[in-house]
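Listing S7. Sequence submitted for prediction.
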Amino acid sequence: MELSYAGILAECKTKMSKCVEYLEEELRGLRTGRASSGLVETVRVEYYGSPTPLGQMAQITTPDAKTIAIKPFDHTQLKAIEKAILAANLGLTPNSDGKIIRLSVPALTEQTRKQLVSKVKDLAEAQRVAIRNVRREANKHADQAKKDVVITEDDHKRLLDDIQSLTKESEKGIDGIFDSKSKEIMEI
């Protein structure tokens, strides 16, 4: 890492945005009672000896709110895709007509919804902690830069303030993602 004002701030911003992106990616595959291609896109299918994400070997659509349709590019892989979906333990049973696999997404019970919201809360909190760790690391680099006389006392103070505002902005992003996903889960 470059111990300059801009270098420290850029690294901090990059790492914090990665924390927010990671949470978004993790929550895409969370079942909410509504059909979403994100539920199955990352399922790994054994494709000619290598595990391949389902999204790379099939067209995944949601014809309605309760159904996911998977149309493989290579129809010989239908059985392998069905097997991978069952092995992924998503709670979805594949139904195949020889060309397309359909997954019916069942409605969630109130208890299951509350458990999912709790899981989302835990994931969001883990990313908040990661953001705070990035802040702590950036503050250490700022202190080191001041100690090595790379930045002035005023720049050091301004850099700490900028790092704190980036932290607050990133945490607001995490909170927004958590709120929208929780609302989506609790919808009936």
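Caption to Listing S7: primary sequence and predicted structure tokens for the chain studied. The beta strands are 44-47, 50-53, 58-64, 67-72, 94-96, 101-104. The chain has a mean pLDDT of 88.
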